[in-house]
Amino acid sequence: MNAQEVRKLFPILHQEVNGKPLVYFDSAATSQKPVPVIEALEKYYREYNSNVHRGVHTLGTRATDAYEGAREKVRRFINAKSTQEVIFTRGTTTSINTVAASYGLSNLSEGDEIVITPMEHHSNIIPWQQVAKKTGATLKYIPLKEDGSIDLQDVENTVTEHTKIVSVMQVSNVLGTINPVKEIGAIAHKHGAIMVVDGAQSTPHLKVDVQDLDCDFFAFSSHKMCGPTGIGVLYGKKALLSKMEPVEFGGEMIDFVDLYDSTWKELPWKFEGGTPIIAGAIGLGAAIDFLSDIGLDNIHRHEEELAKYAIEQMSEMEGITIYGPKERAGIVTFNIDEVHPHDVATVLDAEGIAVRAGHHCAQPLMKWLNTSSTARASFYLYNTKDEIDSFVKGLVTTKEYFGHVF
Amino acid sequence: MSSNLDQLYRQVIMDHYKNPRNKGQLGEDTVTINMNNPTCGDRIQLHLKVEDGQIADAKFDGEGCSISLASASMMTQSVKNLSVEDAIKLAHIFYDMMLGKDYDDTSFDLGDIEALQGVSKFPARIKCATLAWKAMEKGVGNEEEN
């Protein structure tokens, strides 16, 4: 993979920020969009914008074909058995909330357990807190090892015959940890629990195969994988989805509507109330084509190299704490001694370098790390080693800038 | 290094950050306000002693970036011995300053807080600077004012 060539397809990267060439190291928050994705959105709006599944007219058919075509692209991308198992949602958060509100509320009761980890994103914590509160189920946490990874023995010790749901992120948005969700899922299944995987940080960067993972639900967002914002996917095994009730009612998802009762469409549409996110789905389809052409394995390898290169240089600097295990995805979360991460991010921004600072929607993990916030550099297929050099220089500047204070 | 950055991190701000004034707790008969900035995790705990419509004393605890903590330190200094009414007026002068508007610099001795003027050039950091002032307003019962 040639990152320099890839960069040419991302118009936004070719600009100066605060008088310096933009270094965009915040792809874990949202990724940038390549020309084919921008063009797919534009083409839809310019040439065949129309509602789907309704019109008899030509544009309606084109829009429906493109929308359902995107679903087939998603199916292939994550290797689902059927497009009936691919539901378009607003994003990972909505996907997990759908599982919690539909499956969780109707299948759990007092005495049951939901098992998650302290490294989860708020979107994979709060929906389960709510299910626990409403059903009387208990929320339990798999403890983390000192380096922020998961020991399968700890999973064995936490999951019991009372456990109904296990939900774990595949890649940590803070530590970059790649979690063994397949093995965790096997333990969950052994105890009769279902396995939910938060794939928000994995799907953009590594090859996902939901049949190989054998997970029951898998959630991810388009905007972190070169696609537009506002759309994501909930994959679910058909056997489970077909027994579940919709969460949203109206429009699109109905079969027959009578005065006092109604029936739903078949899968996947029964979970897609209202006019769907048509442009978003088409844009996501274009992003999937784009990523597949380059190859997820190539992307993953490139990011690993970048993370390794960044960590090597940062480890040589004094007063920098790097969080997370050695083996990781393209995410480097760190703190500079005595300098608050907001201040780090502001000084780097003055150098044209965009990093995230804060709690990264993972307050329980921040507590576990014994810090209130951190700075995070996250890489994607369009980043280069030269950019890491600029970033490391920026860190030196930051240290010098605040050095005189302490 | 850009001059904007130097305007943001003025020496006097770094001094307040490093050596915060009025850090700690107050005794009995005080109002305590907890406020945080949910998007970034800054937290402040402000203690106010209000007597006969006057802020007799103010102290704070908290964690956050240089701007939020320096601003808290400066705020406690500025509002001490002001009437509640004046403290609220001063808060609004400060908000004007943060928004880069023309602000009233004659009614009060603005002292150190004027050093925070540079924050107005960094929209993402304005919330850091205003946190302590919002907490003060809440403490004197002026919550709805923003």
TrEMBL record, chain A:
EC number per UniProt: 2.8.1.7
All copies of domain Aminotransferase class V, residue ranges: 23-391
Keywords noted in UniProt: Pyridoxal phosphate, Transferase
Cofactor needs: pyridoxal 5'-phosphate
Keyword Cell cycle annotated: no
Molecular function terms, GO-annotated: cysteine desulfurase activity; pyridoxal phosphate binding
Catalytic activity: (sulfur carrier)-H + L-cysteine = (sulfur carrier)-SH + L-alanine
InterPro entries recorded: Aminotrans_V_dom, Aminotrans_V_PyrdxlP_BS, Cys_dSase_SufS, Cysteine_dSase, PyrdxlP-dep_Trfase, PyrdxlP-dep_Trfase_major, PyrdxlP-dep_Trfase_small
Enzyme type, top EC level: transferase
Listed GO biological process terms: cysteine metabolic process
PANTHER family named among the record's database cross-references: CYSTEINE DESULFURASE, CYSTEINE DESULFURASE 1, CHLOROPLASTIC
Family affiliation: Belongs to the class-V pyridoxal-phosphate-dependent aminotransferase family. Csd subfamily.
Function: Catalyzes the removal of elemental sulfur and selenium atoms from L-cysteine, L-cystine, L-selenocysteine, and L-selenocystine to produce L-alanine.
Name of the protein in question: Cysteine desulfurase
Lineage: Bacteria, Bacillati, Bacillota, Bacilli, Bacillales
UniProtKB/TrEMBL annotation, chain B:
Superkingdom per UniProt: Bacteria
GO terms (BP aspect): iron-sulfur cluster assembly
InterPro entries in UniProt: NIF_FeS_clus_asmbl_NifU_N (IPR002871)
GO molecular function annotation: iron ion binding; iron-sulfur cluster binding
Family annotation (Gene3D superfamilies): 3.90.1010.10
Domain spans labelled NIF system FeS cluster assembly NifU N-terminal: 9-128
Family stated for the protein in its record: Belongs to the NifU family.
Protein name, per record: Iron-sulfur cluster assembly scaffold protein NifU
Upper taxonomic lineage: Bacteria, Bacillati, Bacillota, Bacilli, Bacillales
